[in-house]
Amino acid sequence: MLDLGRQAAVRPFEAGTPEExxxxxxxxxxxxxxxxxxxxxxxxxxxxxxxxxxxxRVYRGQGAGGADAPALLYLHGGGWVIGxxxxxxxxxRWLANMADCVVICPDxxxxxxxxxxxxxxxxxxxxxxxxxxxxxxxxxxxxxxVAGDSAGGNLAAVLCLFARREKNPPTAQLLxxxxxDASQAADSYSRFAGGYGLTAATMAWFRDHxxxxxxxxxxxxxxxxxxxxxxxxxxxxxAIAGHDILADEGxxxxxxxxxxxxxxxxxxxxxxxxxxxxxxxxxxxxxxxxAAAVAAWRGFDPAFGNAQAx
Length: 310
Prior knowledge:
Lipase_GDXG_put_SER_AS; GDXG_lipolytic_enzyme; 8 strands; Rossmann fold; hydrolase; AB_hydrolase_fold; disordered C terminus; alpha/beta; Acetyl esterase
């Protein structure tokens, strides 16, 4: 993957505008993802969001059935600046089929046009919609989990903090190399600052487009690692890529969860780089990580019975 990146000689995102970064990302991700796995059904719908209409893509897994299926709110990565409903389509299809569930992926608002907390507010609204319209969606409101990768993992973790005292909090959080500390001071930012895909300079560019000012860095809604306590949040699966600037903060978040009494499954892929779960065409570990997340989710939720992820 690193060789492909060097051969492409793509300009770093931080060297251009957000619009240019989005175009470059949209041109590049189809070469990384594999064939689209068929699901039982695929549809889109629009709901009223806090900042205007929100588009959702709804995937019904082949084994999900027509009613009372478990559901997963998937929040795509992309540094809160790039990414869309197509960029993480492969992952959503895998999750829907492996977990026999309904996956809902929202096209939440992106920065810098919509800075923090716009994305958080959108995600809260979508989770509320899933609960309120569970019957229409054919899902069980008592069996909704959340998931995301990178910035999406950040949003999923924050959403679980918001929802931990709700009537039906998420049953699990599946976090793929999540961003949990916007201070960007962990040692992995030095170890993998350049040459491993996502660079420290690019990550700073993403963050600075997302936050309103430096005071947001310490806000737990931006940096969930900084929250006073994680007690009571949903059981967590945390996937770590070994050569990733976010590795240390992902490890730190898993430890905080464990210290605060939250069930955690921590899995490491030592030879992988940031974003590997979106590289199914080239990285068999991508599907393996999704399967491990589904297996963890099944373990957290007794209603899944003894079924196993493939």
